[in-house]
Each structure stands twice: as C-alpha cells, then as structure tokens.
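Worked Example 4.2. Read the sequence first, then its structure tokens.
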Amino acid sequence: MQSRDKIICAAMTLAIIAFMVLSPGYIVAHRRNLTQQYRQQSTESYQGIISLWHIVGFKSYQGSMGAWLEKAAAALEKKHKGVYFEVESMTFSDYEARRERGEKADMYSFPLGWEYIEELQPIDMTMPEMRGNIADSCRYNGGVYGIPYAASGYVLAVNSRIIQEKGLDMDTLCGMIRSGEAKASGDEIIACIYGAKGELGDEEDFSKEKSWAAFIDARTAGDMARKVQSGNGFPFEAFSCTNYTNLVQYLGIGSGAEEEMRDYILEFMQYVLSEDKQQSLMELGLIPAIATKNQPESETPAVGAMYENSSQLAVPQCFLYATYEDQLCQSAEKALSGDENAKKDLDLRLMELVQGAGIK
C-alpha cells in the first residue's frame, strides 16, 4: 500500500472513531427537542377513540343515516391522525340497556323527543341559518344541547287504483277526507293538522287497500314505492300535507366526554352542517337542516312532495315533546271524531311546542 493510501485510511479511521465517540452525546442532548418537534408536526392534542352512538328514531326514505355519519367520521379521521370516531347505530331499547349497565358515549345522535338531557353538555357553537324554527328546537333553560342536522317529514299518500275506479280528482278526494266521507289511515296528529275527520285506520289498512289515503312518513312511502317497483303492492300518488314534523335528528356532546375531545367533536358537528355534507342528505331523501337558496328538489314523487313544505319547518321543542306526546295523540283521536274542545287543546299544545312557528 502506498504511503498516500495509508494516510487516507488513517484519516478515515480517525473520523469514524470521532463520530462514534461524539455522536451519542449530541443525539442525547438534542433528542428531546427533535422528539417535541416531531410530535408537533405529526400528532394531535388528543389521540384516541371518540364514541358516537346513533340512536335511531326514524329512518330516511332510503339508505342509512348511520352509514352517512360513518362517512363523516372517516373524513375527519383522515384530517386528524390518531383521532378516531367510532359510530354505533342502535334502537331506543339498545340504548336504555347500555345506559343501565353504566355505559356512556362521548357523542350522541339522538331523535326529537329524547328524554335524557342529563346525558348532554351545553354546546357553544355558531350555527348557520336553518330551516324554520329547527335551530331553536333543542334549547333548554337558555342553553343549546343539540345541533339539528337532518329531518324527514310526512306526505298524504293516495291509492291511485281506488281513486280512478271511483272517478275522483284530487280536490274532490281532499274535500271528502276533510269531511270524513273518505276512509283515511296513518298518523293521527298529521291528519288533524291537515283537517281530516272521521275514524282513522292504521297504516296496515292502507297497505291492504282498506282505506283510500294515508298520512305517512317518507320512509313508509319509500318502502311502498319499492314494493311497487318489485311487482308487489299497488300504485299510489304522494302529496304535500304539512310543514310540521317531529322527525328530526340531533348531535350532542356526552356529559362524560373529555375536555380534550371537545374541539374534535365541535369540528365534527361543523362538518356535518357544511353545505356539501348537508346537500348529500338529499341522496337519502332527507331534509337538510340548513337553509338553502333554492328549494330542494327530487325526482322521487314522495320526497318531492315532502320537500314542498320544507323551507319553513315547524318543529316541536325536543325535550318537551316526550312529555306532551301521549296527550297530543289522545286529543288528536278525539278531534278526528268531531270533538271541538279536543281540537282546540291539540292546536294550543302544538303551538306551544313549536314556539311560534307557523304550522301549515
């Protein structure tokens, strides 16, 4: 080996020895700063699972609200590494069983009429302009305990075959429903708001063609339409009947949610109320909670009929409704039989519940 090569090898050996001696001290000295910088760049102030229980109070015309919420959760999870939203759909009885076992969620998707306000924290959030009085329907003692994000409604479904056989037009049929000459079925409160008279049958009477018309929710209309498409059932038409609805779904913060979760929960709520996400509710045949410049439209007749009255929704106060519901149904039943006092009682209770919104 030439002397020049020996000098180079010796220099490289000394450099390697120096690196091995000095680098551990440098790394130890700067490890804390490097670790903090990495965490600031790659992690969140909270990491873990945020549980969201979707308590199903009603179903959309088609599809699933639970799946819709799961898509919203996935979008937030992509944005925040280490933060996960666990969405579980359940019935009222499922919820009550888990509550009795002492289980709780960090977030709730709950329907109007939910009685468990003690399970919720007040929400301080600026909301966009919403339809009718829906934004105020979840206030309690001056605080907001739920953010409305989706609604459904009711339609008047008419058996096309029977009406054609009897040679009736829609105006004549409506007059007969209001005078009690035509047999109708369905929701008693909606029927009273519409002005119907006479004994009301249940939805099964309409499905068996024992009644000419029925006041039904959008999901029931959807199930009937799908039967017709599959070659079962009978043809029917759907018409707008009222802007009143008790079919509203809210998001709330669980009373036991950790403070570190709160910003992520509020961001989830804001995302759900974003214009694009709200517009996607119409793919399920639901009414967006936020006000839109143009009236929602649908090629599906029943959903289109429901949308006709959706710009000025009249929604009952969420936490009072459970207390009033039985009396409302009793008054409606009596009012249909012609009891004027019961009709006045129903009207007064409804006006108190919707807090000044005009019921049409």
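Now turn to a second chain, presented in exactly the same format:
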Amino acid sequence: MSKLPYLISEINSAIEVYLSGRTGQQYNRTAFILCDDGAELASKLFLLTDTPTWDDRKAKGHFKRFNEITKDVRAVFKAKRAAEYDAVDALLINFEGRRGRRNDFFHSTHLLDLTVQGAECVRAFVDLLDYGKLLFGADWDAAVVANGTMETCEAVLRIDKKSFADPSVHPLLNDVLKRQPRSGPKPTKCGCEISHHPEDIHLRLVIRNGGKELKDELQKLL
C-alpha cells in the first residue's frame, strides 16, 4: 500500500497550522519547521518508491544528513529524468537553504525571539507542493484530491503567493471568504448558542466545510 496519502495528510496538517495563525502570524515558526520536515519526508518516500532497497541510514547506522538525501534525489533525476533535473534542482536549493535556518532555530538560543514572515511560509509550502507534484506526478494529484481539504488549502496558499506580485488578488480572496457563513443558526425554541468565529478559525471552518464549491471558486482566482 502506498504511503503517499499519509505524507499528504502530514503536509496538510502543517498547512493548517500555518492557516490557523495566518492573521496573527503566531504559528509561522512552527509551520516553517513542519514544512521543512515535509520536504525531507517527501524526498525519502520518493527515493524508496524509486529504489525499494534505498536506506536513509549510512553504514554505521547513522541517519543520512539532509544534503545527502537531496544528493540522492538529484542522482535519480540525473539518471532517469534528466529533462526535469533543473526544476528539481531549483527546488532542492531552496529546501537546503531553509534547512540551514531551521537548524539555527534549534541550536542557537539568540534566535529564540526570531519569527518567520508569513511570505516565507507561503513560499516554502508552495515549493513543497510543487516538489510533491514533480516527484510523484499523477499519484500525487490523486492523493491530494482524496484528502478532502488539501486542494482548498493549496488554493489559499497559491492565491497568497500570487498576491505578492498582484495585490489585487487578495481582496478577491477576502470577498470569497466573506460570503461564507460566519455565525451559527438562529436560536430555536429549545435554545441554541450562536458563535461568531474570528478570522483564522473562520478560515479553517470554511476550508473544512466549503467543499468543492469553495475550492472551485478559489481556484478561479489563480
């Protein structure tokens, strides 16, 4: 049984962490680290899918370093998918740069008060989504569709990235979200609590409950 759906689920959870603090930016650092983990897991799963005998441990039992894993990915593309080598190399360069910063978060106490900008998280996740598509092709697409909310989460991220170059896109996204119900139903005779959800909770509930109609509307903005 393919483990790709489990990888998709992990990445989707990481995206939801980011989206849960999208307005206040309070979870950027955690999301950035989880995104980096997703890049490593995607690389390992790809290598195992390509060569079932591949091992993420070296001769003495130590785990391979990240740059050793990315080297193995490059080797597969050079040998078997040369036409796509430049595309995967560009993404791996980005991941390798982020890995250095991610490690600094863990090992340097002077970075404890440093956060990650939202734009950095968005670019990191979009790179990861592009990477997964490049590695796994149609299997990736099928697993994303089967996940349920991944397509909608991806649309939000790609719209955010598009807005960096075209600011007019962001108000269009906000208009779509504003049209989604924000409060609960009116009280019944038996009593009912009406809840009003703040921005990021509203976004998560919209993603979870909006279904195909919302996903299609968001994708029209791309």
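Notes for the reader: The chain is about 70% helix and 0% strand. Residues 191-195 have pLDDT under 50 and may be disordered.
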